[in-house]
Amino acid sequence: MTTIESIEERGYTNSYLADQHADQLARLRTLERVFDPLSQAAFDWLDLPRKPAILDLGAGAGSLAGWLSKQYPGATVTATDIDTRFLLDIPGIQVVTHNARTDDFPAASFDVVHARALLCHLSEREHILARAVRWVRPGGWLVIEDVSLQPSLNTANPLFRKVAQAGITLLEQSIGSDMLWAETLPGRLSAQGLSNVGHRTFEGRIGDNSPADTFWAATTAQAGPALLKLGLVTQDDLDAMINLRADPAFSDAALTFVSAWGQVL
């Protein structure tokens, strides 16, 4: 079997999820359609000053950062990413090229620090989480949202389980992702000393033509060449999975999205 190391350097920016991929913007748009309403709802729980300073860490294609700039008129919304190509044309935000692994911010810089679908993909996630707490002003909020793929491992369908496990293995080996980490988020925020910790969860399904189904399909299609190269699945598996998703009799839980927040006192 081909190894990860023989293909490319390990890490997000060299993976099939990186922004230079031809289909990445379209895939990120499917992610936004699933998760933006949930992220927006998380901000409803926060007591913010009239003109907050907000950091959207790893802002991706920027839809949430753009929404924040409209939702909080007068706010300073800083959107960061290691690759900012999709953020440059969004009005009302400040764009900063930033590597969450290595780049810092001064302590107490923001009223809110938000990260979505980011820390699960970074092996230094615990260290970054601790640093992000320091970036929040007293009375401010840390909002971490991430995806768990545990539901896809619980399926009774052997084909779906095989493809899901292959995707998790690819993410673990090529990026360093932990696709079960999200389920521990509330406890991890409490362990960081945050107060007023709260969370909400959302179950995303496949086979039902929902936004979550579209996101799952786009991500799996983008992963296809890497999955095949590593021998984690066959082309017959991928073709059969497409047919399974199209079967009106099939629908199953694929992911859990966890929104968690806590206040720095």
From TrEMBL:
Q: Could you tell me which residue ranges the Methyltransferase type domain spans?
A: 55-144
Q: Name one GO biological process term.
A: methylation
- InterPro entries referenced in this protein's UniProt entry, alphabetically: Methyltransf_11, SAM-dependent_MTases_sf
Q: Which Pfam families match?
A: Methyltransf_11
Q: Which domain of life is it from?
A: Bacteria
Q: Matching CDD domains, A to Z?
A: AdoMet_MTases (cd02440)
Q: Supply the alphabetized keyword list.
A: Methyltransferase, Transferase
User: Which GO molecular-function terms appear in the entry?
Assistant: S-adenosylmethionine-dependent methyltransferase activity
Fetch the PANTHER family from UniProt. 2-METHOXY-6-POLYPRENYL-1,4-BENZOQUINOL METHYLASE, MITOCHONDRIAL, METHYLTRANSFERASE
Protein name, UniProt field: Methyltransferase type 11
Please tell me the species this chain comes from.
Pseudomonas libanensis
